[in-house]
Write a structure and sequence with these properties.
Number of helices: 1
Radius of gyration: 31 Å
Strand content: over 45%
Mean pLDDT: 87
Structural class: mainly beta
Distance between the termini: 59 Å
Shape: elongated
Helix content: under 10%
Low-confidence stretches: 1-20, 273-279
Number of domains: 3
Oligomer: single chain
Number of strands: 46
């Protein structure tokens, strides 16, 4: 049953007795209602602020202030009577509404209602607001949905799914991390999201009239006006942000806002453009709900997303694969591989062609008989082998084993990693290892060259002893450097034949993918 009034309103505040000008009064209502711990609160308010806080208490505690403004005492009473606070539903779904009564207005007046509500943090919340200074929801674990026309929406410390749809208002979300899928959309306002700097998430951002900025290490690609990328390790929850005319900011708490930059200015990694399929056959799919096992004798394989594991093979063609939520085994006997975010273990191999991988969250094995290997991120033990070509690992958060018969090897270790096993060997080329200043390990570096002047061992980390003893090896010279840096740790073995070895500490910035 619906209770047409929460409780008899208690008169709190009054203006002066001079009613010739506008008179304003505020009435306060306090009431409690049953609500299950997993129940749903629906709150609809036309004009006025809303504050909802999740707590450990049972049920709903509502503190409501109704403010009315009129030209005289009769107008005050009419506004008070026609601005109704309505209660409906039950302990499973509780409905609270501000309703303007159907009676005709005899006086000139206006009213607003400020709802301050406390409820179980595990409950679900649905809010509809027409006009306010702010709608604030904090400390919730259940689903949060806000439909807002005018005014700021602030969501603080919510760990459940969050959806905010605003027409004219800025959206501010602050949370330690994005733990559930989050969707924020504002037509004519800005969007600001603050999370811990080490948060792992996938991010989609789109704005027509504004800019997309961040001070976090993000990598991704523009697809039309929309940016799709990852922050830190891939595979985190999805964050969707959309603003038609406003700016979108993704910021790390504790990091200076002045350090943020537009994602449009981040360094671009260019992937070769797609070529038309030359061989009949193959497969082209969008989203695959579940796992897929596909093998073709001739043709290209193009799949946008696999929501499961993937086992793909072609005897003559290339493979273009987007995200995979499980393990992935991808092979080609004669074509390039372009792979997106692989959330499980990756095994990728081709007999002829380059391999590009956006992310291998759990690591794996990447092999090509002849071609370049480029890996933007790996979060587990990874083995990379090419018969002839460069190897580039942009962000390694797991052990690396890399070898090439002819080409340079560049490995950038995740900046928060201080100890990690690295093994890199090139039979003809240079090795560059980029680590943080606090990175430690037991280093064993070897250069084999016929030009000891041109090919050297250099390190920006102190503690490395370079041996100048020269040993003739098949007419060439061997230079060796060993040492325990920053207290030691895992074994770091680097070997370059016909090239140099460099250990640097230059920050490795994020990268966008230019397709």
């Amino acid at each position: 049953m619906k209770n047409r009034a929460l409780i008899t309103a208690v008169f709190l505040l009054a203006s002066s007795a001079a009613f010739a000008a506008s008179v304003g009064r505020t009435f306060r209502v306090e009431e409690q209602f049953p609500l299950n711990a997993d129940g749903t609160l629906i709150l609809e308010n036309g004009i006025g602020d809303i504050e909802i806080t999740g707590t450990e208490v049972d049920g709903i505690s509502a503190d409501v202030m109704k403010t009315v403004v009129a030209t005289d005492e009769q107008g005050i009473e009419e506004a008070r009577f026609l601005t109704e606070l309505v209660v409906g539903g039950d302990a499973s779904t509780r409905v609270l509404r501000t309703v303007m009564g159907p009676g005709p207005r005899k006086k000139q007046w206006s009213s607003s209602v400020f709802w301050r509500v406390r409820l179980p943090r595990t409950a679900n919340v649905r809010v509809a607001s027409t006009s306010s200074n702010h709608v604030r929801i904090s400390n919730m674990r259940g689903n949060v949905f806000v439909k807002n026309f005018n005014g700021m929406v602030a969501v603080d410390n919510n760990s459940g799914p969050v959806t905010v749809d605003s027409v004219n208002g800025t959206i501010v979300l602050t949370a330690p991390s994005i733990e559930k899928e989050t969707r924020l959309s504002s037509l004519n306002g800005h969007i600001v999201v603050r999370v811990r700097p080490d948060s792992d998430l996938r991010w989609v951002a789109e704005t027509i009239g504004g800019d997309i900025r961040t001070n976090l290490p993000v990598r991704g690609v523009f697809v039309g006006p929309a940016f799709r990328g990852s922050v830190n390790a891939p595979g985190g929850q999805m964050l969707y942000t959309s603003a038609l005319t406003g700016n979108i900011h993704l910021l790390g708490t504790g990091l200076p806002d002045t350090a943020m930059q537009s994602v449009r200015l981040i360094e671009t990694i260019v992937i070769p453009p797609e070529q038309k399929t030359q061989v009949q056959g193959g497969i082209r799919r969008g989203v695959v709900n579940g796992s897929i096992n596909y093998n073709t004798l001739a043709g290209d394989v193009q799949i946008t997303e696999v929501r499961g594991g993937a086992r793909l093979a072609t005897d003559a063609g290339k493979v273009q694969l987007g995200s995979v939520s499980g393990n992935a085994i991808v092979t080609s006997r004669g074509g390039s591989l372009q792979l997106g975010e692989i959330l499980g273990t990756l095994r990728a191999s081709t007999r002829a062609g380059d391999i590009f991988v956006e992310a291998a969250r759990r690591g794996g094995t990447i092999e090509t008989t002849g071609g370049t290997i480029r890996l933007l991120y790996t979060g587990g033990p990874t083995r990379l082998v090419t018969g002839g070509g460069d190897i580039v690992v942009r962000q390694a958060a797991g052990p690396i084993e890399a070898s090439t018969r002819s080409g340079d090897i560049t490995i950038s270790v995740d900046r928060v990693t201080t100890k990690q096993k690295i093994d890199a060997v090139t039979e003809k080329g240079n090795v560059v290892l980029n680590v943080g200043p606090q990175f430690g390990g037991d280093f064993d570096l070897t250069v084999i060259t016929d030009n000891a002047t041109a090919h050297t061992i250099e390190s920006e980390l102190s503690g490395l002893t370079i041996s100048r003893t020269k040993e003739v090896v098949e007419g060439r010279v061997r230079l060796r450097a060993t040492g325990r840096i920053n207290g030691g740790g895992e074994k770091i073995t680097l070997q370059a034949t016909g090239g140099s070895i460099r250990i640097i500490t230059a920050p490795s910035g994020p990268a966008l993918l230019g397709r």
